[in-house]
């Protein structure tokens, strides 16, 4: 497995708590930025007024009812995507695994579009089950085709992702074309965005999201053991099959929840764990823990960037992460070969 | 592989090419007969022979025939391009779809539709520019020797992602009418293709395909590796860029006339090879296979659902993804990373 290695001679034991602190501060800052920036230009005073001295003015309502929920959604979705990516990379021992670009989010998307088009389900509480089913099926497919047990080459897994994703995208397009009237709604949903999502979607998704996060964080130790190899893991009392299955279940839960809430968003799960591994080393517990905090920073950051770049309208966050992630992937691949695979 | 096997035309490839050609013809006839105004195969044949009613003649020659001929030519162009790409990258997955070429053409086309509100001719030029630009960018990013192997594929995926982002952005920026037109174009669609679409494509294929066939022998040598090819007397540094350019131009011509039709360039050469069991590029069988696949996919898309017509690109994407997955599974069972090398016999 090839990852960016941290600079030698730096003591991770003092560095990691600092990173944790830094990530927390960054999350706070980017959350505030997300609340402060928007198509309605508000002064800092107006934002603070809405947060701490709510009176029901127009500015207050904008902040409370659209920006705060949007920011919370971004934090939750970012956490889910970052964790899912870290898990995928660890389970497949593949540095370029990402639930978005491997087609898992598109699996959830297909199931949701299918639910919308064929069954007329529109309630988040109903859609979520389709999203999970889609995400789980896609995860299992990609894993079975491209990875299997143990290490797989980055190439194989990526290609399995391409294959699965191509089929899903094809099916999605077919359903969009059959239901022309829903194209207008779906073209935005399929891009992946944090804007104009229903507020109660977040509350519906929360239990699933929390279950996924807890499951993922619990797996840290076992994933460390697994990284030492199948036999060593057995010796340490870890059941590799159980760990991988639990990990994939968590990936399905997290991606399903995130996709149901925001549409398919790719590459967050690729970029964040890579960055975290580079800074904090290979300990899976730290990688998972830091990814949870850094991923929402990236996602919210991209969302704010999209609002700034796209003004007076906005650029959907999925587009920003696509562009950024594509560039990072190219950079990683060029580096991968330079290190000598 | 000796010179003798190269010259020998076995019975099996002949049978394969023959039966594929017959299959394509049958599909063409069925495809012409299908639609709101249905014709039996006998009526189609009679009309094509100039014996049918005047109305049948109009329906067939004005609407159905150009469309199905575009399908045939697209299939041939993509399959030939795919064969060349797979040999040059020495990777069975080095098809134009995967290295981002198709997405680049789509970007070019969408930009012309959305930004300049252009007609079919300008869209074709835009697609050409987009495809060429992407091919150039990907090969630059791969660096020297980078065209061989896995790196090309992964860099292609990265570049594609950036372009897909760009495409989606353009789609959300415009009115729904333009967006619908662009989406229809972006999936690869043969609906409404007439003689004015056919003519430029036919000229491109008529010029480019024979050149590719002329380079069949150097192509076969290249597949066996540079040292051997150079030893036999192939001017590798001249032939490789030339073939790359030809393949790019063929893909661009196909994409310009129908939008990106995915997976044909990937699947047709490999299916042809599996059928003929011949090592080497298999140019003619691939071309016929490509034609059969596109016509079949288009026919399927028109017949699958009563209420609506599925564009050919959607059918090939859904089926092609399944095919690629199967290819990877077969490759794994054989214990090969990737999916085996072409000509690795």
Protein traits:
heterodimer; A: 341 residues; mainly alpha; 14 helices; B: 345 residues; globular; disordered C terminus
Sequence-ordered SSE layout with sheet pairings:
The complex is a heterodimer of chains A (341) and B (345).
Chain A: H1 12-36, H2 44-52, H3 58-92, H4 104-119, H5 124-147, H6 154-178, H7 180-189, H8 199-218, H9 220-227, H10 230-235, H11 240-262, H12 268-280, H13 284-309, H14 317-339
Chain B: H1 3-7, H2 11-33, H3 41-48, H4 54-88, H5 101-116, H6 120-142, H7 150-172, H8 176-186, H9 195-214, H10 216-223, H11 226-232, H12 236-258, H13 264-276, H14 283-303, H15 312-333
Q: How does this model look, in words?
A:
The complex is a heterodimer of chains A (341) and B (345). Chain A has 341 residues and is mainly α. Chain A contains 14 helices and no strands. The radius of gyration of chain A is 20 Å and the shape is globular. Chain A starts with 11 loop residues before the first helix and ends with a helix. In chain A, 54% of the residues are buried. The model of chain A has no long low-confidence stretch (mean pLDDT 81). By secondary structure, chain B is mainly α. In chain B, 75% of the residues lie in helices and 0% in strands. Chain B has helices at 3-7, 11-33, 41-48, 54-88, 101-116, 120-142, 150-172, 176-186, 195-214, 216-223, 226-232, 236-258, 264-276, 283-303, 312-333. In chain B, helix 2 packs across helix 4 and helix 4 (54-88) packs across helix 13 (264-276). The longest helix of chain B has 35 residues, at 54-88. The radius of gyration of chain B is 20 Å and the shape is globular. Chains A and B meet through helix 5, helix 6, helix 7 and helix 14 of A and helix 7, helix 8 and helix 15 of B.
Question: What Rg of chain A, in angstroms, do the CA atoms define?
Answer: 20 Å
The residue fraction in helices of chain A comes out at: over 70%
Q: How are helices and strands ordered from N to C of chain B?
A: HHHHHHHHHHHHHHH
> Multimeric state of these chains?
heterodimer
Low-confidence stretches of chain A: none
Biggest sheet of chain A: strands, sense, closure?
none
What best-fitting shape of chain B do the alpha-carbon axes yield?
A: globular
Structural class of chain A: mainly alpha
Q: What's the end-to-end separation of chain B, in Å?
A: 10 Å
Shape of chain A: globular
Q: Over all CA atoms, what is the radius of gyration of chain B?
A: 20 Å
Please tally the helical runs of chain A, counting DSSP H or I stretches of 4 or more residues: 14
Tally of DSSP helical segments of chain B: 15
CA distance, first residue to last residue of chain A: 8 Å
Which class do the helix and strand fractions of chain B yield? Answer: mainly alpha
